[in-house]
Design goal:
With 248 residues, this protein is an all-beta fold. The chain contains one helix and 17 strands. The N terminus is likely disordered.
Length: 248
């Protein structure tokens, strides 16, 4: 992946399990400073519900002109233990994280997969005055929508998946887009994550997806769940999923 800022085929992410981990988790060959290995705990009882009774989940954000835009899926039913029927996405915005405005609703009929309630997790990207919403068609594949404004309206850019089923050994869903130095990388999948560079048009791939190697501190392969998030803080890259995170 010559254009990718990270060499994903050789990166070793060392897993830090912060559920019940009282001691810093380290690797003998890759010691991380104490301030980056200690987990942060938030008591969910103390966190207010920003959108009560809306059943919104899988939030992802972008900031445009100092305004934050939040994209989320909507649960069709409160019976979500085995169902996860998601009938739409909603985009909300705020200037102060307190007062929120509902900007737009994206329906499955606006996409290539039609009326099916498959509006699973997505992620935003912005480039050259265009705004992109990369979305999951349940756990089958990933598409992309584009808009001229962050609040939409968003239109299906391809009329077909950007990441089709069978593209890699993992399922092609739950996209995460990471930008560094003008290069955009899309990460997706479960069990093993894959990453590919997005082309200049942001709606095609510049190279073939490659696996991201996630290792336990003993060198064994770590199984990764769905919906990754990747960000960089200081000199470290953080890969987050579920109740786990890994560093490189």
């Amino acid at each position: 992946m010559s254009k990718t800022p990270l060499s994903f085929s050789t990166i070793l992410f060392f897993v830090l399990l912060f559920n019940g981990c009282n001691n810093p988790c380290t690797n003998k060959e890759h010691e991380f400073p104490d301030e980056v290995v200690h987990a942060v705990y938030n008591d969910p009882i103390q966190i207010p519900n920003i959108f009560p009774e809306h059943g919104l989940t899988d939030p992802h954000v972008m900031i445009v002109n100092d305004r934050l835009y939040l994209g989320m899926g909507h649960d069709q039913s409160w019976d979500v233990e085995f169902n996860w029927t998601m009938d739409r996405w909603e985009i909300w915005s705020t200037d102060d994280l307190k007062s929120w405005k509902k900007e737009t609703v994206i329906h499955p009929n606006d996409t290539y997969f039609g009326p099916e309630p498959n509006c699973w997790a997505g992620d935003f990207a912005q480039k050259d005055g265009k705004y992109y919403w990369y979305f999951s068609n349940r756990f089958f594949d990933t598409g992309v929508m584009v808009a001229d404004k962050p609040e939409g309206p968003f239109k299906d850019a391809l009329g077909k998946p950007l990441l089709p089923n069978g593209l890699t050994p993992t399922k092609s869903y739950d996209p995460e887009v990471f930008e560094e130095d003008g290069t955009y990388t899309i990460i997706f999948g479960a069990g093993t994550y894959y990453a590919a560079t997005l082309a200049e048009d942001m709606i095609s791939l510049a190279d073939e997806p490659e696996p991201i190697v996630v290792q336990n501190s003993d060198g064994s392969h770590h199984f990764t769940a769905d919906k990754p998030t990747l960000f960089k803080r200081n000199e470290f890259y953080y890969l987050v999923w579920g109740a786990h995170y890994a560093m490189s």
